[in-house]
Design brief:
By secondary structure, the protein is an alpha/beta fold. The protein has one domain: 3-Layer(aba) Sandwich (Rossmann fold). It is 39% helix and 17% strand.
Length: 241
Amino acid sequence: MKKMKAFLLLTVLFTGCTRSRDRVLCVGFDASATAWRGGNPYEAGWAQILATSQGGDHIYAALINEKGLANGTPSIDFKIRRYSFLTDKRREYDEAVKVKLDNQRQLLDAALKKSVPAKNTEIIGFLHAAAQIFRAYPGNAVKELVVFTDGVQESGTVNLAKAQITDQEIAKIIDEDRRGGRLPNLKGVAIWFVTGPSLLTAQIGSNKLVRLEVFWTKYVQACGGELRAYSPVLVNFGGQQ
């Protein structure tokens, strides 16, 4: 028993990581014309996310536009392997991780520069894409989803810019998506909506902004996810698991 305890202790030390489980994280950046016109308004939030990265993390990031699932492969896809006390040198490992994270900051800049502001925002399509990624990972992995958006879903089937977003309308949308098999499966996923101001939200009034939060709270719940925050900034994010 003493040998087993010693082995377990060494295993923890060898990983060099305080997070006990591997984490898969999906991040979406709204690239619609109503939320983004140029530059990189997500730089601070992206840096905040990267600062939480540790060994055992696999991070995906994509632009949210009118294509939804048709976007295919995420723009950013990288993994940080766990530190090994047996084969790694701490200074070299830390420097390699730092370089990798710096590269990811630049990749988001490059992706936005190559992008054209989208006419519509398929937030639900992005949730579907994230759900497909999460499905490929073990059930014990930490699964997190961060969505940088104004919250205004605009598509042929669900257009929150034009909808009244009453409780009845929300229930109808969820019921139709459920019956049509269109609800993303986000069971076990912790979710953050980061809803910074946009050209559209500046025009629609406080009441509708509140109703947007109600919509996404109920939609995420219907998908089995846990909405950790719906806020203008990324809050309560990056705790150890």
